[in-house]
Amino acid sequence: MMKPHQYVERDTCDLHTERLYRDRVICFIYSKLREDAPFLFRLLTSRRASSLIAFLNYDFFLSRRVSGVAPFLRPSALDRSEWLDPPETLDTPKKIFERKIPYWQCRPMPDREESIVSPADARMLVGSLGKGSALFLKGKFFDLPDLVDRPAWVEAFRRADFAAFRLTPDKYHYNHTPVSGRVVDFYEIPGAYHSCNPGAIVTLVTPYSKNARVVTVIDSDVPGGTGVGLVAMIEVVALMIGKVRQRYSVDEYKEPKPVEIGMFLEKGCPKSLYEPGSSTDVLLFQPGRIRFDDQLVLNMRRPLASSRFTEAFEKPLLETEVKVRSQIGVALPWA
């Protein structure tokens, strides 16, 4: 029996117990099925199976009639006043999942040029690959060479500081740019479609570097950039996520463009959209170039809280719920 999974709401510092979507099913797949039927397990975490499950959950007319518009919304506290489109037009689970919000109003961004902002509405952890860091978490969530899959970026981020953002199915699923800078590399890496449920994450070693993902490397040390060095933004697909659609737009959601090498990205703008399901963003920063906000670090170590990450890794690891475009840290100049 998996223990409850709790997180801290950033704005209030309140502790909440998460109602994990399809938790019993996910726990069964990643324990019993993974051990007793590995072929079936691999099949269920394949792209084809993930797309089929997503279709049945979000598009299939019968599932909508039986389950209602969106079963995962029932226990969730979605603020429908934030929806950019009229609620009556969002009449399918997929439309609700891919909803737009007036982020320029309801997700204000700090004015400080050195601010690094959250790429998503998500529950986040911070860590470091540097052995001398108090946030040292090497090998817990990803294997760096597998995650970025290119020698140049393995070297650049060898002792990186990182932040992982877990998007639950009820969240706003546009990703926004965390920094301003120029794209120096952009590529896709094939892989599996494992769940981002905390129970699945702790069962499957380094899941983020096993899933299909999109890597965008941004040089922020350019004119007009945030000044935090190289930043790798890895958009990790998950169960029921078909792909990541690149839809960068400077003016609200207008005239979206695919991300390309050489493009300048402005901080806080919509960059991409996940297709239905849960998913994860990982940000990598060169060592010594970011100072994470103290509150995020302190929340991870909060006592008397139950977290599946803490239980599995035997180290306090409590997530904080953050809003897209809110500050998560500040840039530090080269020493």
Describe the structure.
The chain is an alpha+beta fold and 335 residues long. It has one domain. The chain is 24% helix and 24% strand. The chain has eleven helices and 16 strands. It has helices spanning 23-36, 38-44, 47-58, 61-67, 93-97, 103-106, 144-148, 151-156, 198-203, 294-300, 308-313; strands at 6-9, 15-17, 115-117, 122-128, 161-167, 174-176, 181-189, 213-219, 230-236, 244-246, 264-265, 270-274, 279-285, 290-292, 319-322, 327-331. It has a ten-stranded mixed beta sheet with strand order 2-1-15-4-5-13-9-8-7-11, covered by helices on one side. The protein has a three-stranded antiparallel beta sheet with strand order 3-16-14. Strands 6-12-10 form a three-stranded antiparallel beta sheet, with no helix packed on it. β1 (6-9) and β2 form a beta hairpin. The longest helix has 14 residues, at 23-36. The protein starts with 5 loop residues before the first strand and ends with a strand.
Mean pLDDT: 84
Question: Unreliable stretches, pLDDT < 50, 5 or more residues?
Answer: 60-69
Radius of gyration: 19 Å
Q: Reading side by side through the largest sheet, how are the strands ordered? A: 2-1-15-4-5-13-9-8-7-11
Biggest sheet architecture: 10 strands, mixed
What's the end-to-end separation, in Å?
48 Å
- The shape is globular
| Residues in β-strands, percent | 15-25%
Give me the number of helical elements.
Answer: 11
Number of strands: 16
Structural class computed from helices and strand pairing: alpha+beta
What's the domain count? 1
- Series of secondary-structure elements, N-terminal to C-terminal: EEHHHHHHEEHHEEEHEEEEEEEHHEE
Helix content: 10-25%
